[in-house]
């Protein structure tokens, strides 16, 4: 197992650059808002206020977030247990409130290798919790931003864990709706898609307003207005475009709750009936 972190010492002159020193509790961050909605404890008052704003807009927000997480778990389980994928690039990792990717994958394939990427310092601080997988496999966590894909792809730690001559599952779960149109989200995804070989998979989910007929876009995104990353919901067609050139697996791009639901998995009833997120999985031909 690999690990790139080092102990943080407040007396160290490099401390100011350490993740813990860069956590701003006053600005809501998507990873921490998500953590709170999942029942985690790694969040601040600003994150909780933003989350409560989301719940006011949609009473089913908590259940929807859990449904989204369950979708990711089902898709990762499929990739490891059925598709034969042993390498995962998980960008926008978030906090380890629920089973992270390597735990799910290594249950099926102990030698699975996972590179985690996130730009929130608090996620980096908790990185060691992620780096406790099966010794047959490997995990690594780096601090980087999805908006700089070449930095991610050229990072030595990522290259140490992942072999880009073999299929890789690129995971972009609940992250692209924090990339604005001006930041070229489609171009970013195309760069990631281009570097992986045939047989690689793209696991992607995205917030949508397609089921929010009673809300304006301004109302829908308001809880994130003061966060570190404003939200940009996208339609089904706009989300589908991220998979361009790859083959979507059944049942296609659908609401996360309807993507291969597990018959033995408890399905929460979501107030309002919708998780407000699409999810899909595609393979590179």
UniProtKB/TrEMBL annotation:
Region (Disordered): 1-24
Pfam hit, one: Methyltransf_19
GO biological process, any: methylation
Signal peptide segment: none
Molecular functions per Gene Ontology: methyltransferase activity
Record keywords, A-Z: Methyltransferase, Transferase
Gene3D superfamilies, per database record: Vaccinia Virus protein VP39
Protein's UniProt name: S-adenosyl methyltransferase
Organism: Nonomuraea wenchangensis
């Amino acid at each position: 197992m690999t690990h790139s972190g080092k102990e943080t010492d407040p007396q160290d002159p490099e401390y100011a650059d350490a993740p813990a020193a860069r956590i701003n509790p006053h600005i809501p961050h998507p990873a921490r808002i998500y953590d709170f909605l999942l029942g985690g404890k790694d969040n601040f008052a600003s994150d909780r206020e933003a989350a409560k704003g989301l719940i006011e807009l949609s009473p089913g927000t908590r259940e929807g977030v859990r449904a989204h997480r369950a979708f990711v778990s089902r898709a990762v389980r499929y990739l490891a247990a059925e598709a034969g994928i042993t390498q995962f690039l998980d960008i926008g990792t978030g906090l380890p409130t629920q089973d992270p990717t390597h735990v799910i994958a290594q249950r099926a394939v102990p030698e699975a290798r996972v590179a985690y990427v996130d730009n929130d310092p608090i996620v980096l601080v908790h990185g060691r919790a992620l780096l406790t997988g099966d010794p047959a496999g490997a995990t690594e966590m780096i601090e980087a931003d999805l908006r700089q894909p070449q930095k991610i792809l050229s990072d030595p730690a990522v290259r140490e864990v992942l072999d880009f001559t073999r299929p890789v599952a690129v995971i972009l779960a609940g992250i692209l709706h924090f990339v604005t149109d001006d930041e070229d989200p489609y171009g970013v995804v195309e760069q990631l898609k281009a570097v992986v070989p045939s047989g690689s998979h793209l696991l992607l989910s995205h917030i949508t307003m397609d089921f929010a007929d009673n809300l304006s876009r301004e109302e829908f995104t308001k809880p994130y207005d003061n966060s570190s990353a404003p939200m940009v919901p996208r339609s089904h067609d706009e989300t589908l475009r991220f998979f361009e050139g790859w083959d979507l697996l059944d049942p296609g791009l659908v609401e996360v709750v309807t993507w291969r639901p597990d018959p033995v998995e408890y399905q929460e009833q979501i107030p309002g009936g919708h998780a407000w997120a699409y999810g899909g999985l595609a393979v590179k031909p």
